[in-house]
Structure formats: C-alpha cells, structure tokens
C-alpha cells in the first residue's frame, strides 16, 4: 500500500503542476488594472508557504458586504421590494391598513409618503412583514419570492443582479483556501435561503441584522417564532461586533461599498500581518448606477476618504470591470 | 492531460478501496455496545449515495454541548474556576472587595457563602471577571490561563479532562463530511481561544453565551470593549435560538448530557429525514463522576425520560466507554 500511496502522491504533484501551468485567468471579468493586480498579489502573498506573510488556511477569513458589493442595491434595497410585496399580499388580512400609515400610503403605491415618517414607518413595515411567523415559514416565503422576483428597471431576476467580477473573486478566494462570509446590514434570515445557491456561501457563513426569536412547542413540535423585536443591527459599528460574535476571528480581507462597511474595513486592517481592504465604487451610470458621497442608499463618503488615506484598493466599476452582471442563465 | 486525469481517478478509486478494506476502527475507545453501533449505522445511512436517506455534505451539521459532553463539568464548571482565579488576580485593584459580597467570601475561600445570594452573586462575579477589557485582551487572559489550569481533583490540565470517545466521534463525523459545532451554555469568548486546538473545532463553529461588545477607537485603533451586559444565554430554549442565529440550518445530529440540551435535541429531532440524538449519561463514579436527576450541575432528568420515550441513544459512560479521558500528552 505504501508504494501505491507514493505513486498517488507523485501523480498528484504532477497534476498540480500541469494545472498551474495551464491555469486560466481566475478573474476574467476584471480588467488588468490595479485592483485585479492587488487582489492576486495579496492572495499569492498569504498562500506562499515559507513566506513570512503566509497565513494558514484556517485563518484565511474574508468578509463581504452584500447590498452594493455582491449584488445591486439600486433603486432601492431589494429586501425593501420584498417587504412591499409582502404588505400587498398580507393586506386582505389587515383591513385596518387601509387607513393606517405607513401601510395606507404603501398600498396606494406612494412609497415616498409611506416613508415620510422616517425610520418608525420603515420599522413598522419590517415588523409587519418579517415577524409573527415561524422561521421555517419565513424561509419558505423568501424562497418562493426570490425565485421569481425581478428588478424594477432591468426586468432581470434579482438573483441575476449579482456582480460577475465578485462571483469570480469569491470563487478565487475559496480556491485559495479562504472561507468567505457575508457581513451585511440586510436581514440574516432574508439572505440565508438563497445565498448558498447564488454565491456559494453556506447559511452558517452569513452574518446580518436579525430579530429575536422564541422557542415554542406547537402541537408537540418545536418551532422558532419570529418576534417583533430587534435583536441585532449589523451595520456600521455593528459589523465588527457581528464579525466577533459570529466568526470569532478577525478577517484578513474585507470587501464593501459604503460608509456602512467602514468599521468592518478598519477592524480588518487593524489586525497584524497582511491585510486587504477593498471598496467597490459605483461609478458606472451606463451599465449600473453611479453614486457615492451624496446617495441615500449606499453612501460612500468617509469611506472613500479613508480608502485614499490608507491606500486601500478602490474598484471603479466603470474602469476595472469588463462585465458587471452575471450572464442570464 | 486527460489520460493523466483518468489514471489519477483510477488510482484514487483503487486507493479508496484499499483504505476501506484496511480501515481501522474509527471509535476505538467505545465498547461494541448499542451506542457505537447506532452512531456508525447513522453515519453510514446518511453518507451512502443513492440511499433515500443520503444527506448532502453541506447539510451534515452536528452540534455538541461542551460542559459534561466534550469535557468534564465536575466538581464545578471549569469556567467558574477561571472566574475564581480572576477574582484573586484582580483583588489588589479592588480593595473594596474585602468587604463586598460575593467577593469577600470568595477571597476567603468560601465559595458556598459567595453563592448564597443566588444568581445575582454569580452574575456579579462573571461581570467583574469577563467585562471591561477588550476582546483581544480577554482572549489573551483565557489563553494564558488555560495553558496551565489544572483540575482540582485529578490534577491534570483542564484541556486533558476531555472525553477521548467524544474526540474520536468528532473526528469520525468530520471524516464523513460533517461540520461539527459546539453549542454550549458556556461563554463563547471563553471557549474560542482553545477549542480549535483541543477539539479541532474552529471559532466560527462555536455557539455560546455572550455579553454585549462595543466598537471603540483607542488611539486611532479599533477595539471591541466587553460590556457588563448580557447579550445572549445559550442554554435550554436558548440553544435552538442560538443554532438558528449562528448556523441557520437545523442539525441532523445533536449531542448533549443535561436537561439544558433537551431543546437542542428536540429541535434536531423535529427536522425531516434521518436524525440522531444522543445523551451522555454520567454513570461512572469510579473513572469520572456519577450524577443525573438530582445534580445541581448538569442535571439530566426530563432529558433522560424523553430520551427513553423517543428512543434516542443514551451512552452510559461506565458501560459504553473503554476510556474516559484522553491520554496525557
């Protein structure tokens, strides 16, 4: 058996050599500009054995924001589209919504009016559409919705409004022993039903905002009931807190697109050893959307200044990406 | 290259055949009694391709309680030993503790007196010893302590007071594509510094009780400060909540030793498809400790009844385990 093992090992080495020689570009949708070069240089640096910057595989943690970093977030967060559709679907069971804000405005199609009351209105919409049911029921509602939900402008499935270059980046990092996590301000239970299929990221590697749940016995069967009470907001200063809570070790690479990701990038950068921080800058009005310092959604202002000051990598979607969205399936 | 690939594949198959034929017992510290047979039967059932009970690797989630399931919890929870030593170490900075309970009693060596006030006293001890510092500082305090901390009765390192049969079980499950998680009532930040080395479980696969943390900038460097405020209690009904929050999918196998694990086992059992629930029963007064229905620590009463009613696997440490503790290193 020992000789077979040796032959096996030799063949594996030979094959690995062939594979490397014939390797295709791992990031074909990226132009050969600075960001792509910086990513590859970083990955080679931390994966080269006997290098002083070598990082063992179990410490290769990479965290990704979702909205605006992995998929589109314009003209509104997609989770808000979900909430709107749920309000319509639930309206027959809530006749009182006809005269009760923010629902009355929403049902008339007046989103602006519904949100005029500020955060309170938004919170009421979230609670009415995301709580009361069990976690299993909510999982099914999201799964059913995401299967057909389309983007209001492009008409494409929302799950196709994901950035092809970022899908390649996720795969490239994983092929190099990284564990990829989502760390998003979006709802953790809103993302988990579909991110494994779309990004290859399993539910246990998703960190997000959440409501409280309660263990209950219903007809002798245990369920978790979603309560109308906020558990955790995974945004801004919440992102390092969420990372510490869920992952328990500091990422060596972090990817975001807004000021809401700044503390995650700061937290990542502050670790010892090689670190990589990247901002996606929405600079392509033609192929996607162009927005930064003054946007209500995905504002990138302080983050852009800090990225420049700290020499973090900034991706211009217009200049650095050959393709924006993944091809239709 | 294609022919090399084929040769490679053939060799791999041949090697796999050899390995299976010559396979060693994966659970050598288990007697050949019912629990061992049930474990192996379950693993074979869910890993056999083309079987109706096949479970894809990404859904092979197994959760383990820690205290009393993976390591010893007698005569007191080991985290309490940590807290006691911290009180002693911090006492010079707290002259007021000389007259303030529960610290005054503790410092005199009167643990019973210190805890006479019930949960309030215990909570004060935890807050005084587990909060105020940054997460990095706490990580170092725990790491330093666990390196030398010894068991009050056996005199062995606490990290050697782990159950050898359970270490084998963890490795066996992982070798069969399972992802193993700890789901413990113990502190998540108390466990993470050492569980990877001791159990092979990485920090991101640890669920536990936690306090709140706060993102702060100290001299331009971000830190997470541990606040004297409870975030989550991962025990009893909290275990399914913690599993849902951290893992986001239901385990197919769960392992515990007390009534505090009952809801985790119920939650696991209630999923569709093949499920495996196991209780470790502390029945060996000679080699470990014997306790169950009336113990203050690790009480197993309702759980024992439910295990019998539901035909879950119950391990008698006395009868089913050849060895209890891992050999000295």
Order of helices and strands of chain A: HHEHHHHHHEHEEHEHEHEH
* Adjacency order of strands in the biggest sheet of chain A: 4-3-2-1-5-6-7
How many helical elements of chain A? 13
Biggest interface and its residues per chain? A-B, 46 and 46 residues
What percent of residues of chain A adopt helix (DSSP H or I)?
40-55%
Distance between the termini of chain A: 46 Å
Q: Could you tell me the radius of gyration of chain A in angstroms?
A: 22 Å
Helix/strand/pairing class of chain A, anyone? alpha/beta
Main sheet attributes: strand count, strand direction, barrel closure of chain A: 7 strands, mixed
Q: How is the quaternary structure best described? A: homodimer
- Number of E-type strands of chain A: 7
The coarse silhouette of chain A is globular
Taken as a percent bin, the fraction of beta residues of chain A is 15-25%
Query: Low-confidence segments of chain A, ≥5 residues, pLDDT <50?
Result: 17-22
Mean model confidence by pLDDT of chain A: 93
């Amino acid at each position: 058996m020992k000789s077979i093992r040796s032959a096996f090992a030799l063949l594996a080495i030979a094959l690995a050599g062939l594979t490397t020689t014939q390797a295709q570009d791992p990031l074909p949708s990226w132009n050969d500009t600075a960001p792509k070069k910086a990513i590859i240089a970083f990955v080679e640096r931390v994966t080269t054995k006997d290098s002083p910057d070598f990082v063992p595989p179990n410490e290769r943690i990479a965290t990704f924001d979702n909205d605006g970093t992995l998929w589109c977030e314009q003209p509104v967060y997609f989770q808000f589209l979900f909430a709107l559709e749920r309000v319509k679907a639930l309206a027959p069971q809530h006749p009182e919504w006809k005269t009760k804000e923010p629902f009355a405005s929403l049902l008339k199609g007046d989103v602006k009016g519904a949100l005029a009351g500020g955060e309170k209105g938004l919170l009421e919409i979230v609670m009415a559409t995301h709580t009361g049911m069990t976690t299993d029921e909510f999982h099914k509602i999201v799964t059913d919705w995401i299967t057909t939900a389309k983007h209001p402008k492009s008409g494409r499935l929302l799950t196709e409004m994901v950035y092809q270059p970022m899908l390649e980046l996720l795969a490239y990092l994983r092929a190099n022993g990284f564990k990829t996590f989502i760390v998003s301000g979006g709802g953790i239970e809103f993302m988990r039903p579909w991110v494994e299929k779309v990004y290859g990221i399993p539910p246990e590697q998703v960190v997000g905002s959440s409501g409280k749940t309660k263990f209950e016995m219903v007809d002798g069967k245990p369920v978790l009931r979603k309560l109308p009470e906020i558990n955790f907001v995974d945004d801004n200063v919440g992102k390092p807190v969420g990372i510490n809570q869920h992952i328990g070790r500091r990422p060596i690479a972090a990817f975001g697109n807004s000021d809401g990701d700044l503390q995650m990038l700061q937290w990542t950068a502050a670790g010892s050893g090689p670190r990589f921080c990247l901002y996606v800058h929405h600079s392509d009005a033609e192929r996607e959307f162009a927005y930064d310092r003054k946007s209500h959604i995905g504002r990138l202002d302080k983050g852009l200044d800090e990225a420049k000051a700290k020499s973090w990598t900034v991706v211009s979607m217009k200049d650095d990406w050959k393709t924006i969205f993944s091809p239709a399936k």
